[in-house]
Each structure stands twice: as C-alpha cells, then as structure tokens.
Amino acid sequence: MAIAIIGTGTTKFGELWDKNWEDLVVESSTEAVKEGNIDFKDISSGYIGNMNLSRFGGQDHISPRITEILGINRIIRNEAACASSSVALKLAADEVELASFKGENKIALVVGFEKMSDRLPETTTNILASASHFDTEVINGATFPGLYAMLAERYLYETGAREEDLHAVGIKNHKNAMLNEKAMFRREINLKDFKRNIASPLKLLDCSPTSDGSASILLTTEEYAKELGVDYVTLEGIEVGTTSISLAKREDLLVLDSAKRVSESVYKKVGVKPEDINLIEVHDCFTINEILCLEAAGFAKRGEGYKIIRNLLPYEDINNRDAPIPYLFNGKELFVNTSGGLKAKGHPVGATGAAQIVEVVNQLLGKCGKRNVNPKIGATLNIGGTGGTATFSVLSN
Amino acid sequence: MTVTPKFFRLNNFENIGKRGEIYSKTKSSVASALFQYNKKIPYNTALIRSENKLVFGLVDDEIEIGDKISASVGRIGATRKGVYVYGVVWRLDKNFTKPKVKESKIKRILPKEKVGIEGYGAYIPRYRLDLSTLNKVWGKEAKGVKSFPGKFDDQASYACNSSLNALKHSGIKREEVRFIEVGSESKVYAVKPTASIVAGLLKTEDCFAGDLEFACKAGTQSIVNAYNFVKVNGGYGLGIGSDSAQGAPGDELELTTGDGSAAFVIGSNSPIAVIEGISSYTTDTTDFWRNEGEKFPKHAGRYSGDPAFYKHTMNAARNLMKKLNLKPEDFDYVVFHQPNGKFPRVVGKKLGFTSEQVEPGIVFELIGNTYSANSLIGLAKILDISEPYQRILIVSYGSGAGSDAISLVTTPKIEEKRNKIERSVKSWIGEEDKENLIISDYSVYLKNKGII
C-alpha cells in the first residue's frame, strides 16, 4: 500500500520577529490542509517534529498545546534534533500504512517547526549543541560548527578536496535560493565573501543560519487520495536509522553510516538506484555535509564526493549560470537542493526534514515555478546532529 | 541515596594521563553559552586518537593533524552558580627532557629514619611573561620572565597535575593515598578545599584532605603534616604546594609572582629520600598580608627583608642544624624560598653555604615566585640531579611569618625510580627551551590570570 502526500505547506524561513511559534504552526498546517481539500477534524493524528521548544520558547508538553490550537486530539511529538520532522513523517506514514492493512483510510498531519531567533546566539549554540554527546563533547566545548569543522578538516586532509570546494556548495545553494520566495537568504555570494572564521576550516558562509519556520505534510493512503481527487505525490519509501551520537565512536569518521544504511535500504525496497534520482534535497547544515550526504546516498564513493562539486568549476562563474544549478552524475543532470538547501533557505531545525519533503513534492507536482526541474523521482536525506540520526526517503508521482 | 545535581559531578577525569595524536581539529570562534562562562574563546578542540580509540577533547595549543599530545587536568569551565568544572585538557608533548644527574664523590650516612619522599612531581604552565612588557605599561625597569596560566590552568589544576606526576614517580596507586594537603594562598574557592578536587581525581575516598594557608610556606608545612600523618598512621600522604600567585597590576609584586605547583608523596615503603629532621620558627610579623575578601596581597616593602625573610629563614635553618648537630658543609644542596633572585643567595651566604650548594635549587629567574610552590619546585629540581646518599636542606619562608626547615638524605631508590620521571624540573621551568614560551603581551597575561 503506497502512501500519498496530498498537501504541503511551509512558512517563509528567516528571522520572523513578528511571529511566534504558534503562528508558524498554524500557517504551514493550514496551507497543507487546504491543499489536501480536507478539514482539521478529518485528521486522525498529528505528528510534531520539534527539537527544543522547551529551551527556545519555555514550553514542554507541546502536544496538548497544539491540540488546543489545531483541534486535532491525537498529537505525538517527536524529537530527533535536526531530523525531528522527518522521523515524525516516518511515524505518521507507519500509522497510515498499518491502518490500511485493516482497510482503514487515515489522514495524518506532520508539522515540523522551530522558533530559534528569540535567543541570544551563544544560548542558541548551546541548545543546538545538546544534539551532540553532552558529557564528552558539549562539556569540552563542542559546538555544531566545531564538530562539523572537524569532519571538514579530516575530509580535506584525507581526500585532496580544498576549502573552495566547500564554498562552491554554498555559492550554488545561495544561487538556487534566489528563485525560492520562502528562502531566508535570496542573494548571491562569491568565493571572496568566505572570510569570517567560525570554526576552522569552516567560514561563516559555510554554515546554515539559525532560522524560524515551519513546514507541514498531509498524508494518507493512495486509494483515499484518489477518492479525494487531489494532486498527490507517492512516498515510495522512507527509513530512519541511528548510529553513535559521538563522533569519536564512529567506525569511520568520514562516513555518515546511519545515512548510508538507510539510503541503501530504501533504494532496495523501492527498487531504484542513485542514477534514477533527478533531484535530492540533502542536509547541508554545513557545506561539508552536502558532500558527505552525496557520498552516503550513493552518488560518490567515500572521499570522492567533492569531485561532483567540481562539476561547478570554475567557481567564479557559478553565479553567471541559470538557477537551479545541477551537478552531473553519470553524465546526467543531478539537482541537489533546488530550494537553496539549509544553507540558503534556512534551517529551523525541527522544520527542516519536513521542508525537504515539501520541496521535492512541489517539484514533482510542477509547482515550483521558475525553479522547477521536472523530476520523475526525488529523494531527501535529513540528518540529525552530526549523523546520529538519518532519514532517507524516495518520492515519485 | 543522595543524588548529586549533575553540574556538581561533571569532573571528567577518565582520559587524564593518556597520550594521543591529533586526528582532526578545529579552532572555534563561536562558543556555546555553557562554554562562554569563562570567555575562553576562540579555542581549539580535536578528535584525538589515543590507545586505538578516538576521543574528543579540548587542546590548549595551536595544533595540526598528526601532532603528539598528552592529557592533563584543566579547568574547562564553570557553571552559572560558579562551580568550576575540571576535566581533560590536551597539551602538546613538546620540549620534554629527562633529568640529568650531577655526579658527587661525597656519600652521607643514611639516618635510621624510614619515612620520607616516595616520589615527587612538578607542574608549571608553559607560558612566560616577558617582564619588559611592564615597562611600557607601568614604566618599570623590569626584565626577565615569570610563569603565568594558560587558558585552562588554575591553582587546582596545577595541584592535580603535579600530584599525578608525583604519583607516577612514586609508583604507588592513586587510591592508596590516605592524606592530601594543599598549601596555597590562591585557592580557587574560598570555601571548598582544592584537596577535595585532588582526592576526586585520585578516586581516593578513605582519605584525610584539606587545604592549608601560611603565605609561601604552606607547601613545606603540607609535607611536614603528611610526614607526621604517615609516621602515626602509616600509608601514603601527599603534600602539595600550588599557587597562581597574585600581584596587583602595577604593584612591585607583579614583577615576581608566578604560577606552578610541586607535589610530594610521603611514605615509608621505598623512599627516595628520608626526612631526618624538621624544625620551624614562627613570630607575629606582618610583612605581607591579604585581608579577607581582597583580591591582591599588600606588603611592607623593605620590611620584608631583615626582620622578616632573613630572621625567620636563618632561625629555622640554625635550629634544625643545631638539633641534628650538622654544619652547612654537611649538606650537598640547600633550597630557600625565593621571593626574588637576591634573598636566597644572600641568606645562603649569611648561613655559611656556598653558591655550589645554593644555585642548583634556584628557579626564580625562570618562573618567578610561585608562593607556596616556590621552594618545593626548587627541592624537586635538586632531587632530579641528586645521587644516593646526599643531604639536602630546604628552608621555606611564609609571611606572617614563619619558616620550616627540613633535612633530607637521599637513598639508593632515587636511582631506581629516576626512569619513571617523564619530564625534568629543568624542562618544566623552561631552562632549555625558554624562547618558545615567552609571550610579550601584557593583555594575554591579564586575561589568563583572570584579572580582566
């Protein structure tokens, strides 16, 4: 039984000073429900992806608070750091699928959100750092830029990639975001802009921003989607995997092993290969991670992902090209992060996994306007923390 | 069972003493709110390959992949309520040299005493302030160097590190220590003993522990107290001197105050030097003092000389020599407290010692006056070069005022245990590589010292 995504919604991502988190949840979920041509009361379960409202906004026990807002009386909140809402989607899809075995058609709503801009930067850094190993990493001064910087440092040391290869990812994603009106940064950047050090070798522009935003997904069975008569996209496969939270405990520092494992499992289940994918939204929280994600999702061998980035050479000319800018994979165009990715679209951590799905769904439905790349098969790779959690999905229409 | 709140049990000592190699690293310019309590940014963190495993850690140096480093204790932060968090700080294994023995023809007779020094260790931070930088700021005619803290150093981390070095040298297990006393006038807490932090590091709970203050002589007094404890109760004791010496900006003391620690394991199992006698001399003399709640000590200038340092040092030394029926020529080496370069040399001459006996114990010119640790570091330096059957006199001085004198005779064990010393005191104080350590930036000093 296939799962159908019948509606999506997303707020603009950015520093949304005039909105609180409830506004964001209502905005994205209402858009999804409207697209699905149903009412909130038709929804059997709501799955919330949120990392840390308790410290960003002082509220724990989120589920009944959202019942109070949306009127859905079965809400389950899930936390998996930056993968919170993709894991929520997996839970929702499982519920819909399980019910379908009994002949029931359930509608489930996934809402991912984070309101991060209300805290001072060092507090936000501290809250985000809690997605790494608190007692060994955080207590010794780890921050997320610092942890990914160590991945980047080792990657550059082992592979022959250069800092410019990392920067090229950011330049490309900023260019793509120019066509996305929901994106946080809609401006071009150049190699010479990569100046301010955040955590060597990562510069400020190698890092995704802290953002506010929400994204929602409405799903049901394919059978019921047809009955509703709405446009839908099929969620062909989705899988979640976890590995050690500490970087130090990974078998191979440069392999996102949870991501590798779940992507292989989904490819096998769906019966597709990396070369069948036209578009993938990957987790470029830091530019190095777009490369590591491409390797984990089977587009390159370990340590060779940067060669895909080098398709974009000369990097000085990236901004002269028309967005969205593809890479080449097996001689075919491969679009990565047409939305602008986390880097330029923004990274409200709890919303990111859902937002990746929203982009791929809208691309498959041809609803992305100028940035539409007309894919047949799309995929998402969402990462929690430094790869402790990974969700991979394949979608098609 | 009482459950301690998490922030009070964060001391994270499990990798202390390990060696490793940098696998990956970064220098962060942003810090989390948790780490910003001490404003120690930017800072280096690394993934370190140690014993075939990767570990994550803070590094107090500029590093490259492949650099060899070792883990010692450092203060890595503090909680909102001001509880200091100690943990592992990795430092480059640089400029380590082994002790070199100075040959001697004279063999002293070993006394019947059984209790003495089982092992010793020093710890001195790597940084040296170029004192000529004070000329620009304060118009002082200063030259030379003194030690000051790195980003993660403080009086308690010094005590922990010198204790670990001492235990490694002694060959006894950490949990065998039954007595710990830290002599200091720069305790990190006004209430909560540094000795408890050392005990936590050593995981020894069946233990008497406490801190002791008597200006610069609390270190020798801790050795005396450990000695007395061991004589009555047996087992092993730790006497430690540790200070991050305070001198107010612009004050004369700023030209001399240094940082460092030395620790001595006292026992009767296989001492490298037995204690053959002790003596002390105390009067109510207010030559240097710090009022409760004040940050910096005050002093009475020239009054520190004759009625204070000289009087007490000479009386304690003479009393002990009289008690043991010894003359200056019966000693191979003598160490005095070194508040400056002049006092120890002059008092040696006054007492009838030669410069051959005095000079080997002088550390002042390379690290400054490390208060309670000062004469102890000098003693450790002498033990590094001593052969068996040599007699050493140590005379401390603490303002307030008093002096402790201790006479020691080395045993053949000093030869046997020497190979366990990983780094000589000469190397710690920077006698061989001082050029690498000098920082000519007063603001770095002020920041690391916690003054700004």
What is the element layout, followed by pairings?
The complex is a heterodimer of chains A (397) and B (452).
Chain A: E1 3-10, H1 21-35, E2 45-49, H2 53-57, H3 62-70, E3 75-78, H4 84-101, E4 108-115, H5 121-129, H6 134-138, H7 144-159, H8 163-177, E5 197-199, E6 202-203, E7 212-221, H9 222-228, E8 233-242, H10 257-270, E9 279-281, H11 287-296, H12 305-309, E10 327-329, E11 332-336, H13 341-345, H14 349-364, E12 377-384, E13 389-396
Parallel strand pairs in A: 2-3, 2-4, 9-11, 9-12
Antiparallel strand pairs in A: 1-7, 1-8, 4-7, 5-6, 8-13, 10-11, 12-13
Chain B: E1 19-28, E2 43-50, E3 53-59, E4 68-78, E5 84-92, E6 116-123, E7 127-130, H1 133-138, E8 145-148, H2 155-170, E9 177-183, H3 194-202, E10 208-212, H4 218-233, E11 236-244, E12 259-267, E13 273-285, E14 288-289, E15 298-299, H5 305-324, E16 333-336, H6 342-351, H7 355-358, H8 364-367, H9 374-385, E17 391-395, E18 400-410, H10 413-417, H11 425-429, H12 434-437, E19 438-439, H13 442-448
Parallel strand pairs in B: 3-5, 7-19, 9-10, 9-11, 16-17
Antiparallel strand pairs in B: 1-2, 1-4, 2-3, 4-5, 6-12, 6-13, 7-8, 11-12, 13-18, 14-15, 17-18
Shape, per Cα inertia axes of chain B: globular
Oligomer: heterodimer
How many structurally independent domains of chain B? 2
CATH architectural group of the largest domain in chain B: 3-Layer(aba) Sandwich
Strand order of the largest sheet of chain B: 10-9-11-12-6-13-18-17-16
**What is the level 1 CATH name of the largest domain in chain B?**
Alpha Beta
Total domain count of chain A = 1
Percent of residues in helices of chain A comes to 25-40%
Which descriptor suits the 3D outline of chain A?
globular
Question: Can you give a write-up of this model?
Answer:
The complex is a heterodimer of chains A (397) and B (452). Chain A is α/β, with parallel strands linked by helices. Chain A has one domain (3-120, 208-396): Peroxisomal Thiolase, Chain A, domain 1. Chain A has helices at residues 21-35, 53-57, 62-70, 84-101, 121-129, 134-138, 144-159, 163-177, 222-228, 257-270, 287-296, 305-309, 341-345, 349-364; strands spanning 3-10, 45-49, 75-78, 108-115, 197-199, 202-203, 212-221, 233-242, 279-281, 327-329, 332-336, 377-384, 389-396. Chain A is globular, with a radius of gyration of 19 Å. In chain A, 61% of the residues are buried. Chain B has 13 helices and 19 strands. Chain B has helices spanning 133-138, 155-170, 194-202, 218-233, 305-324, 342-351, 355-358, 364-367, 374-385, 413-417, 425-429, 434-437, 442-448, and strands spanning 19-28, 43-50, 53-59, 68-78, 84-92, 116-123, 127-130, 145-148, 177-183, 208-212, 236-244, 259-267, 273-285, 288-289, 298-299, 333-336, 391-395, 400-410, 438-439. In chain B, helix 2 (155-170) crosses helix 3 (194-202) and helix 5 (305-324) packs across helix 6. The relative contact order of chain B is 0.15. Classes of the chains: A alpha/beta (397), B alpha+beta (452). Chains A and B meet through helix 5, helix 6, helix 7 and strand 5 of A and strand 1, strand 2, strand 3 and strand 5 of B.
